[in-house]
Each structure stands twice: as structure tokens, then as C-alpha cells.
User: Fold this.
Amino acid sequence: MAQTDYPARPVRIVVPFSAGGSTDQIARSLAEGLSKLWQQPVVIENRDGASGLIGSRVVAESQPDGYTLLFGTQTTQSVLPHIVSQMSYDAERAFVPITELVSIAQVLSVPPSSPFRSLAEFVTYAKGHPGELTFGGGVGATTHMAMELFMSQAGIQLLGIPYKGSALSMNDLLAGRLDSMFDVIMTSLPHIQAGRLRALAVTSAQRQPLLPDVPTVAELGYSGFETNVWFALFAPQNTPTEIVQKIAEDSRKVMTEPARRRIFNESGFQIIASDPATFAERVRLENEKWRQVVKRANIKLE
Assistant:
């Protein structure tokens, strides 16, 4: 099939989460732009369940023709495959990486009643009181994995409190029932600005424009620490290279439109819109990083 022939009919993007969340909203923004560009309907299909594995399997088992795509995340593609004991597909071989669309940093926050006013104070106390300080996050969620990565680098041990969603853990953090939590800037920022949370550090390599006074974890002495939550497009394995390339190129056109870029930046997202080769290497490195974190922390999800 020639690149110019695609798409000749509607394209389906499977979002392996329920409608209304941030993942779904990003996917719908992309679909809207691609629909206009391609003059073909780009339909979002929400297939939630099993932390994203059900929708991912739908795409893994689809025809590799470019008409069924997966809106994957760091969690579905690079974390869950290492913590789920029984998977019906090989996540590292079932998909072709197309493009990393956007990413967003996380911020480590504590309640305003917390005695810790810096990351150094937080770590010093944690080293002297292993297992006493708590953090929130669902097993394998980005909130959980960011803390596991930080604990391994800082040489500390906190008590993880599992939640079914970050909103529930955020409520307890705000109420002072949790000592700390990593969460994306988009969610944490309003509370930080209102004085309901105190930000200690961000997880990106550089400081964030929306939180310019908050240092990065790396600059506070943890060299190389970086973990951004990413959202991306994947196709079933064996999808023709020319189709993968076209989807990546057209997605870049959509995501870099000035109005769309401004909207995402205002929420703390960074537009990436990478090419397939660059993104494939990113996925490889992410898989290796989280595989090591999972093994070290012995994280399992039945």
C-alpha cells in the first residue's frame, strides 16, 4: 500500500482507559486534528479494564494495517508487562512504536502541615526512620513507580499505601493522612498554588515553567533521576513502515499546531511528537529502567 493511499477509511484509536480522563482527552485532541487532516473519521474507542491491558490486547490482536491503533502510556507499555504475572500477549513484541506525543513531569509534594520544607529534610528523616513515612499510589501506577525509583536512588524506604486511583490518594494527601506523593503537575499545581500542598521537587531533567522555583530531583543531588509520564501511539506488529511513518509525521503536524501546543503547555504537558526510530529507542530504555525497578522492589500484580 502506498503511503498516499492511507487512510482510505476510518481509523480507530483504542484508549485502554475510561472516557473523561487525561489520557482520553489527549487522544481525542489528536483524533480531532487527524480527522481534519486526513478527511477521514478517526474514532476513539474506550476499552478500559485490567489497568489498560484489555484495550491493549485488542490492538495487539488486530490486523496490522494502520486502521487500529493503540493510545499507550508509560504504564501500559513499560511497567505493567513487568509486574503482571500472566499476560496474553508480549507487550515488547506485539506493537510498533509510532510516536511519543506528549509527556508531563511529576512533582513530589507534602501537606503544608509537614515539617519537611526541602527534599534534603525529607530524605534525612526517612533514612533515620525507615518505613515510617507514607506515600500513596496504585500498584504499578506512575505515582507508585516514581517513588520506587526515588527510594532506590536515595537509599530510603517509605511505606506505600495502595489506592485504586490517584484522586483518592490526593484527597488523603491534602487531608494530611499521607506524608508524601508524586503526581503529575497538572493535578498537583492548583493545590500547590493555593497553599494546600508544598512542592519539594519535580521529576523532569529541567525545571518546569509552571513551577520555576521548584528544583528538580536531579539538581538536588540525585544525578540522572528523571521520570516523565508519557502518552504515545502504537500499531500492531508488522504494520507497514510507510504507514507508521505517515502517522508519526501527521501526528507531529497536529500536535505542534500553535493553538494545541498552547493548551497542552498551559496544563504542564510538553509536546514531543517524536519520529518512530527515536520513540522506539525511548521505549527500549523505559522498559529496561522499569524492569530493574520492578525487580529490585519485587512488585507484583496478579
Remarks:
- The first strand starts at residue 11 and ends at 15.
